[in-house]
Amino acid sequence: MLNFKNEDLATHAYQKVREAILQGEIAPGSPLFEVHLASRMGMSRTPVREALKVLARDGFVQVVPARGYIVPHRSMDDLRDLFDLRESLEGTAARCAAQRATDAELAELEALCVRYENEQDWHRWVQIGTDFHNLLVAAARNQRLANILDSLNGQIVHSRRSVLRADAQRRDAATREHRAILDAVKARNAADAEARAREHVRSSYEATLFSYQSRPAAIG
């Protein structure tokens, strides 16, 4: 690690801190200190400082004047804003995928959808769903869109997982929604693919909002 360039270290720090936030190792409300993070990752404070700036830009941490950085709590307004963006962007991704996906990608999406429908283990089921969405975005052939969605979905992953764990009906609905998206993409029906993807995100938001109102401490 000592042989890495400074920008490589900053990228490494960004990835490690983001992963810790998404895995719940750093809880919402927790302060982030450069010196502690640098010591934890075995590097100087400079790449950590750069990583925190980018994490703040991407919405994973929040700048607190005169205090540094904290992992933010998500308010209802935050969730609404995030899901509004996600609906638009994932709709666009599905529309583009219907126009641009290769036959090999369609076959892989079908295989993932079948696994998603049959998987019983919750953790594996969530990962398969993530893989499905990632491949759909990749098939859209728009790297800027992929980069924005990666950051956006990272910010709401905790809320989405808490809902899926708590609500078996939402899990069943999500499975049906994935199948509807895939059917539209396979039919090369761009308008329907976009509509189905938007419906899926709206349903996810409604379930998340219900969970948030019922159990506000469950979402970070």
UniProtKB/TrEMBL annotation:
SMART domains: FCD, HTH_GNTR
Single GO MF descriptor: DNA binding
InterPro entries recorded: GntR_C, TF_FadR/GntR_C, Tscrpt_reg_HTH_GntR, WH-like_DNA-bd_sf, WH_DNA-bd_sf
Segments forming a coiled coil: none
Stretches assigned to the HTH gntR-type domain: 7-74
Annotated Pfam families: FCD, GntR
Domain of life: Bacteria
Keywords per UniProt: DNA-binding, Transcription, Transcription regulation
Residues making up the signal peptide according to the UniProt record: none
Record protein name field: DNA-binding GntR family transcriptional regulator
UniProt source species: Variovorax soli
Lineage of the species this protein comes from: Bacteria, Pseudomonadati, Pseudomonadota, Betaproteobacteria, Burkholderiales
